[in-house]
Every structure is written in structure tokens, then in C-alpha cells.
TrEMBL record, chain A:
Name of the molecule in the record: Quinol:cytochrome c oxidoreductase membrane protein
Transmembrane regions listed in the UniProt entry: 59-77, 97-120
Keyword RNA-binding appears in the UniProt entry: no
Organism classification: Bacteria, Pseudomonadati, Bacteroidota, Chitinophagia, Chitinophagales
Pfam families from the UniProt entry: ActD
Keyword annotations: Membrane, Transmembrane, Transmembrane helix
Signal peptide start and end residues: none
Keyword flag Transmembrane helix: yes
Domain of life of the native organism: Bacteria
TrEMBL record, chain B:
PANTHER family: PTHR43044, QUINOL:CYTOCHROME C OXIDOREDUCTASE QUINONE-BINDING SUBUNIT 2
Keyword annotations: Membrane, Transmembrane, Transmembrane helix
Originating species: Parafilimonas terrae
Protein name, UniProt field: Quinol:cytochrome c oxidoreductase quinone-binding subunit 2
Residue intervals passing through the bilayer: 20-37, 57-78, 90-112, 139-159, 191-211, 223-245, 265-287, 307-325, 332-349, 369-390
Coiled-coil stretches noted in the UniProt entry, renumbered to this chain: none
Keyword ATP-binding recorded: no
């Protein structure tokens, strides 16, 4: 995987970050990501990210869990090895519900965690490049991807003007796996109402 | 942005509608009294009283759930509901009104009529012969029943009144940090008292007295929580309906789909909670299969109430689960209106089968009388809630959490 060039701008205030994000997107630069110490409300909207489909994945895992549990239990107790348990019918639905429920929860929870790790490109032995170590402390770090047409000096000056107190250029591996949101970022022109 | 002093005025159309509903209710009450209530047939009479009982209990408990909602969020230091707080407050003003109606019915059943067709334990001779009932007679007796009912409703009303009065204080003058802190603290104390009393009543004893003792031999430890779950999810649906109505009329400028979403989350979560209790109560009894426990479910699952019993699960569990699961639905005013109405109807049916399933075991007759009496309570509810809403500004201007509530975002 090829190395890419990034311009990294650090901000120290949420209220400076938001207008900066808006200006950078209006100027047509491509924001790779914004790293913040905590979840900043409304930043996903400002960045033009689409809503996550994690919950749809969770629903599908849950439904699979329901089907697997009910299917397996009814196969075992109805067709493969019918037993008389306390005179109950061979398909005692109420008695199956707790296990069905638990399998549903298990599959959706584990499946969602794994999907989340996949989407965020997290995994064992995966080395991720840290653009700024203080993104986990008190800095809001905006990372902009450079293309062949980007004039880095212009961009650096532009970012300093938007209020970044520190701007530097870094080279890093961008992705380790397929399937990022890169291609699905909405251009700001399509979206007139940005916070 | 809307101006901060918002004053609701009761539209004349709403007055007409609520009056029409009350008139329909009163007419069906009188007709029911003549055809059923005064007839010699014991079962017809029990049906009439049972209908009055489950309606008054249901509508009172869902109005009280509004006050529970305010107190629970106050205790949790929740601020998001501040801009919509006047709605549950207005709804909770109905607790004394419906409480008096409920008490009148109980005074008639327990102290005046004293027939065992409603409560088995009223019959002293039968209790003396019955080992189980005489064991329970320390709890199930008219004096304890009446005193506890009056205390329950009285203390709900008094503490609710205090909470509403405290809320009005936030309309008067701006608060600095110290008065704000002490204001929140006074709210917390009253809310805490209310929650404790709520746990001692709805969380345990009151459903045992009012509804579980209709089957005096049977008992279930899930029953009170089940009643609470039912009333709370309906109470939240009622708040959602009022919120949507006021938004439609152009009031509550600060409330938006984030607040509706949060109410939707409550409705969704407590529909699941209700189902959990429903199932826990049902499955253990089904699995144990002991005659004195299955007596409650026998005619509900296999007898006359079969259809209503399973429709109940579809309306109150399957529909909220599948429809309200999606985020966009909880933020959609039309779908939330539909779901709120559906859930109120569903839990009304639930209360119907809880009470009437015991009063009239061999016949499920959801008739004009049920809908007529319900319309009486709905009419009263609209009338009193709109009047209470009109008395105060819709936003408490100087509430310490107002800013947090306006900026609420989920």
C-alpha cells in the first residue's frame, strides 16, 4: 500500500474547529479524518459523513441469532431426538424463548463489535499511524489528505488562517484494509445546510 | 426561534371535542347503569363495575406515570426534558381528579355494595372457611384496602402538587448559581420522596390490592412491575401525543425531534421491559404448571380471552419492536402519533383483560360500554390537561437546565 502525504492541523478549541472544518470543505480539500479527545456532538454532520450502517448490521446479526437458535432447538427436540420432558409438547415455544433471546443478543453484540473493529480498521497486530499523540488528551486534530494537485504550502497557510496553532506534514500508510468511508464523503456543495 | 414566553390558549375546537367526549361518556355511563348496573343479574352488574374500575385505574395510573417521569429524570439530574416539562406536569394534574373517581368506585365496591362478585375476599364467611384467604386477611381487608388507597392517591397528589409548584418558581425571576443549586436540591428532595412512595404503591402494594386481589387465591410477584411497565409506557405515549399536538399548533418552539426521539426511546425501551415482565410471569407459571398458579392464565390463554390476550402481545411488543426500532421513526411526527395511539389502545386492552378476565371469566365482551366509559375519561383528560397547560407559560424561562434542554442533541 502506498504511502500518502497528509497535512495535520491541531486546534485547541471546539469552537474554532467547527468553522475550520466548514472552511476547509468549502475550499475543496479532502478531510481524511478529525481526531478528537471526546465525541464532539454534531461533528459527523459538519464533516458530511453519512450515518453509520452498524445498526443495520446489528439487526441482521440479531435475526440470524433468532433463526439459528429456534432452528437448532426445534430440529433437535422435534425431528432428531424427541424427548418427553415433563409432559411438555415437543415444541415448547415459551421454554425456547430465553435461549433464543440470548443467542440473538450474543450474535448481535459480538457481530457488532467485530463489524465496528473492521469499519474502524482496528485489530490485533495492526499498527496505526498516530498523527498527533495529544489527540487523546486535549487537541482536536484535523488531517487532510494531499492529492497530486494539492499545493502543500498554500494549504498550510490556509489552515493557520482558520485558527490552527500547529500545522505539519506527515507521510503515512492510509489504509490497511478495504472498505472505508473515503468514497462516500458527501461534497459540501450538495448539502447547503451545514451547521 | 420562538419567543420564550409561550402561552397556550385552549382552542375552542378542543373544548367542543372534550365536551362531546364527556357527554358521550356520561350517556354511556347512564345507559350502562340502567341496563347493566341496576339489573338483577349479578354478572351484568359485575361487568359494569369492572368496566368502571379498569378504566379509572388505567387512566389514573398513566397520568401518574407523567409525574413519575418528571421525578425520575429530576433524580437522575436529567435536563433534556426541561422544554417539554409542562406537558407531563399538566397531565399529572389529573391524578386527584381521576383519583377521586377511583376512590368513589372503590368506596362503593368495598364499603357499600360488599358483594363478592368483584372481590372474593369481601365475603367474610367464605374467607373464614378458606385457608388461603384467611391467611391473607391481614392484608386483604376493607379497612386496609381503603386506607391504603386513600393514602396512595392522596400522597401522589400532594407530592405532585409540590413538584408543580416548584416548577412554577422557575418562571418568576432569574437564578444565580446558588439559588439555582438550592432550587435543584429542593426539586431532588420532593422527587425522591415521590419515587419512594411510588415504589411502595405502584411498585408493589397498589396493584396487589386493586387488581391482583380480583383473583384472591392467585398471586404473582411480577404483577406490580407489570402494571407499572404498562402504565409508564402508556404515560410516555400520552406525553408524545401532547408534544406532537402542541408542535403542530406552533407552540414549544424549542422542542424538536431530538426531544421526541428521546420520548420514543422511552416508549421503545419500556415496551420491551413490559414484554420481559409479561413473559417472565407467563413462562414460569406455564413451566411449573401448578393448578393454583395456572388459574389466572387458564381462561386467558385457552378460554374466552384468547384473542385479546395474544393481540395484546402483537400490539404492545411486536409493533413497537419492529416499528420503533429505527432512529428515523422515532423522529417522525406522523409515525410517532400512530405508535402512541396504538400503544395507548394496546395497554388499555391489557388493563381490560387484567381486570375483566377475572371479573367475567367465561365471556370477553368488549362492548359499547367499554368505549363509552373510555371516552368519558379521555374527554376529562383533554379538558383538564388543556386547562392546566393554559395556566402557565409552556417554557420555564429561568430553569437552570433550560439551556441544556434547548441544545439537546441525540
Amino acid at each position: 500500500m502506498a504511502k500518502k502525504k497528509f497535512v495535520v492541523a491541531s486546534f485547541d478549541d471546539e469552537n474554532v474547529l467547527f468553522p475550520a472544518v466548514k472552511k476547509v470543505r468549502l475550499a475543496g480539500y479532502k478531510i481524511h479524518d478529525v481526531y478528537t479527545p471526546y465525541a464532539v456532538h454534531g461533528l459527523d454532520k459538519a464533516l458530511g459523513l453519512r450515518e453509520t450502517s452498524l445498526h443495520t448490521a446489528g439487526f441482521i446479526y440479531g435475526i440470524s441469532g433468532t433463526t439459528i437458535a429456534l432452528g437448532a432447538m426445534s430440529w433437535v427436540f422435534v425431528s432428531d431426538w424427541p424427548l418427553n420432558i415433563g409432559g411438555k409438547p415437543h415444541f415448547p415455544l415459551p421454554a425456547f424463548i430465553p435461549i433464543t433471546f440470548e443467542t440473538t443478543v450474543l450474535l448481535s453484540a459480538v457481530g457488532m463489535v467485530l463489524t465496528f473493529c473492521y469499519l474502524c480498521q482496528l485489530g490485533p497486530f495492526v499498527k496505526k499511524h498516530h498523527f498527533s499523540s495529544r489527540a487523546t488528551d486535549d487537541h482536536f486534530v484535523m488531517v487532510i489528505e494531499c492529492t497530486s494537485k494539492t499545493n502543500v504550502e498554500d494549504l498550510k497557510a490556509f489552515l493557520s488562517n482558520t485558527g490552527a496553532f500547529d500545522v505539519n506534514v506527515q507521510e503515512a500508510e492510509a489504509n490497511w484494509w478495504l472498505g472505508t468511508y473515503d468514497k462516500e464523503q458527501v461534497l459540501i456543495k450538495d448539502e447547503p445546510t451545514v451547521a | 426561534m420562538a419567543s420564550i414566553k409561550e402561552q397556550f390558549e385552549v382552542p375552542s375546537k378542543m373544548k367542543t371535542w372534550s365536551m362531546a367526549l364527556i357527554v358521550i361518556g356520561v350517556i354511556s355511563f347512564i345507559l350502562g347503569l340502567i341496563t347493566k348496573g341496576m339489573s338483577g343479574d349479578e354478572q351484568e352488574k359485575a361487568t359494569f363495575i369492572g368496566t368502571l374500575m379498569y378504566n379509572s385505574i388505567f387512566w389514573m395510573l398513566i397520568c401518574n406515570a407523567s409525574m413519575f417521569f418528571i421525578c425520575a429524570t429530576t433524580l437522575a439530574m436529567g435536563g433534556w426534558h426541561t422544554v417539554i416539562k409542562r406537558i407531563p406536569e399538566a397531565i399529572s394534574t389529573l391524578v386527584p381528579v381521576f383519583g377521586i373517581i377511583t376512590l368513589v368506585i372503590f368506596i362503593y365496591v368495598v364499603l357499600i355494595d360488599r358483594t363478592a362478585s368483584i372481590y372474593e375476599w369481601l365475603d367474610k364467611d367464605a374467607v373464614a372457611k378458606d385457608h388461603l384467604l384467611s391467611g391473607k386477611s391481614g392484608f386483604l381487608n376493607p379497612a386496609f384496602f381503603m386506607i391504603w388507597s386513600i393514602l396512595a392517591i392522596g400522597i401522589w397528589s400532594i407530592l405532585g402538587h409540590r413538584m408543580r409548584k416548584l416548577s412554577s418558581e422557575a418562571d418568576e425571576k432569574p437564578m444565580d448559581i446558588n439559588t439555582g443549586k438550592s432550587y435543584i436540591w429542593r426539586n431532588t428532595v420532593t422527587a425522591g420522596l415521590f419515587i419512594v412512595w411510588f415504589a411502595l404503591t405502584i411498585g408493589s402494594t397498589v396493584p396487589w390490592f386493586w387488581m391482583m386481589s380480583l383473583d384472591a387465591h392467585w398471586y404473582s410477584t411480577m404483577y406490580s412491575w407489570y402494571t407499572f411497565g404498562s402504565s409508564f409506557v402508556t404515560g410516555m405515549s400520552l406525553i408524545a401525543l401532547w408534544l406532537i399536538y402542541l408542535k403542530n399548533k406552533g407552540y414549544l418552539g424549542y422542542a424538536n425531534e431530538n426531544h421526541l426521539h428521546n420520548i420514543g426511546i422511552f416508549i421503545f425501551a419500556f415496551s420491551i421491559f413490559w414484554t420481559y415482565l409479561w413473559f417472565a410471569q407467563y413462562m414460569l407459571i406455564w413451566y411449573g404448571n401448578i393448578p393454583e398458579e395456572t388459574v389466572y392464565f387458564k381462561h386467558r390463554v385457552q378460554g374466552a380471552y384468547k384473542g385479546i390476550f395474544f393481540m395484546n402481545i402483537i400490539i404492545n411488543f411486536v409493533c413497537p419492536l419492529l416499528i420503533l426500532m429505527k432512529r428515523s421513526v422515532k423522529r417522525n411526527y406522523t409515525l410517532m402519533t400512530f405508535m402512541a395511539v396504538l400503544i395507548i389502545f394496546g395497554h388499555w386492552i391489557d388493563f381490560y383483560q387484567m381486570v375483566m378476565g377475572s371479573v367475567r371469566e367465561n365471556e370477553a365482551s368488549l362492548s359499547w360500554l367499554d368505549f363509552g366509559i373510555a371516552s368519558l375519561f379521555i374527554g376529562l383528560m383533554i379538558h383538564f390537561t388543556s386547562r392546566a397547560l393554559a395556566k402557565k407559560p409552556l417554557v420555564s424561562e429561568y430553569h437552570p437546565f433550560l439551556k441544556e434542554s434547548i441544545a439537546h442533541h441525540i
